[in-house]
Amino acid sequence: MPIPDSSLPPITLCAADAERLRMLSSLSHRVSPEVADFLEGELERARVLPDEDVPASFIRMGSRVRFRDDGTGLSTLVVLVYPGEEDVERHHVSILSPVGAALIGLTPGQSIVFASPHGRRRKLTILEVEQPQAGSTAN
């Protein structure tokens, strides 16, 4: 079930992420149409800024993010990565997963409701965002 736009928090993306994510969302429709549709909706409503103008508090590709699942109260630390870089043991979550698509562009204190792969509504609240050091890879 789609989430109404009015209940979604504002998001901000850097231009480089927005461009690459548009391409990924269109290519992923055959594999995961629900996530691709959600990501496309996020891209359409996002405020896109030049890379250097996006504050470090916004979740971008490669960000380390601590969020709380408001349904369970559990806190999780993940790194947001591109498809093919996901790794459950290292807590690397793909942007093309429901959680990954929900996280992009948010800041600490914001919450978002999205549909899990089984259609269950989940609400996540962002607790912390950390950007990778320049020249390093996300760990």
From TrEMBL:
It holds the Pfam family GreA_GreB. Residues 56-131 form the Transcription elongation factor GreA/GreB C-terminal domain. InterPro entries: GreA/GreB_C_sf, Rnk_N, Tscrpt_elong_fac_GreA/B_C, Tscrpt_elong_fac_GreA/B_fam. Keywords: Kinase, Transferase. GO terms for biological process: DNA-templated transcription elongation; regulation of DNA-templated transcription elongation. The keyword Glycosyltransferase does not apply. This is Nucleoside diphosphate kinase regulator. The gene is rnk.
